[in-house]
Amino acid sequence: MSPLWQQKKQKEFCLGNGILLSAYSPLGAVGTIWGSNRAMECEVLKEIAKLKGKTVPQVRTNKGNLKLDYLDLYLIHWHMSFKKRSEGDKEYVFLPMDLSSVWAAMEDSYPMDLSSVWAAMEDCQRLGLTKSVGLSNFTCKKVADILSIAKIPPVVNQVEMNPLWQQKNLKEFCHGNGILLSAYSPLGAAGTTWGSNRVMDCELLKEIANLKGKTVAQVCLRWAYEQGVSVIVKSFNAERMKQNLEIFDWSLSEDELKMIHQIPQRRCCRAEKFVSEDGPFKTLEELWDGEFDLQ
Ligand SMILES: NC(=O)c1ccc[n+]([C@@H]2O[C@H](COP(=O)([O-])OP(=O)(O)OC[C@H]3O[C@@H](n4cnc5c(N)ncnc54)[C@H](OP(=O)(O)O)[C@@H]3O)[C@@H](O)[C@H]2O)c1
């Protein structure tokens, strides 16, 4: 969320339902973090900043834009960077409705300079732009790389986590280093470009759900909750949102947990499109440091 992607509808809907919107890439990725410098180079924002005698990042988190004085948490979304590229008036920027642009720009991607990017994240925290800083889609190895250079350690690593991709090693590693794992796609992200129906169609989960009089979604969310991670599930449906919150007054039995533990493990979101001859990651092995399939 940034002035160039203001999420008006999403914001109205969430605030109207008492849900605080948490923004990632509010600085438009600052060039090295994700996407392009588009927001940071926006003339309108620069003009406002000049008039107010402030820097662009300060202006971009103020009440006039995000209705926030600061962010609670600011994450590095992915561990790769993109050169700025424009053709005519088209710039390559990661936006959910235009995924083709990010794939098209793979030859412009390059390994993230973790030292300088993490130093910039730490500056955001020191400047009070964010209360905390963290990571997303980082493997054990990449978290360790950050820890080896960090003056301010990350507090969160937001990654795919569900019964079909349980992230046992990463959870142990992160929690052992004081980093909370945050589970995205806890239902396997059915219906998105990055997910599949595999979680919601899993026969074992259906069996457990039937026996307990719960839905598969509730079993997945309860399972994630019992792992001691934070959970981000998405629904635009009021009934399903309610259902997704009804997981706190019951629990999974030891036997059910054991059965879930034995489900063959495979990432749903493998991000194969980030693997490219022209990009920094030539194989899935390189992209995920081997953490993508445990069958
Ligand atoms: N950091 C990252 O790289 C990253 C990557 C992926 C996702 N995320 C974030 O993680 C959050 C959640 O992940 P996600 O959207 O990928 O996957 P998800 O929450 O696992 O799945 C969302 C899908 O499940 C459906 N759904 C929700 N509740 C349901 C229920 N009770 N029964 C049946 N279907 C249900 C939703 O449809 P309806 O809306 O129709 O209910 C939607 O199609 C999102 O906010 C996303 O932005 C972050």
UniProtKB/TrEMBL annotation:
Which PROSITE patterns does the UniProt record give? ALDOKETO_REDUCTASE_2, ALDOKETO_REDUCTASE_3
Bilayer-spanning residue ranges: none
* Chain ranges of the NADP-dependent oxidoreductase domain: 61-263
Record GO terms (molecular function): oxidoreductase activity
On the tree of life, the source organism's domain of life is Eukaryota
Stored InterPro entries: AKR, Aldo/ket_reductase_CS, NAD(P)_OxRdtase_dom_sf, NADP_OxRdtase_dom
* Signal peptide residue numbers: none
Give the protein's recorded name.
Non-functional NADPH-dependent codeinone reductase 2
Could you tell me which species this protein originates from? Hibiscus syriacus (Rose of Sharon)
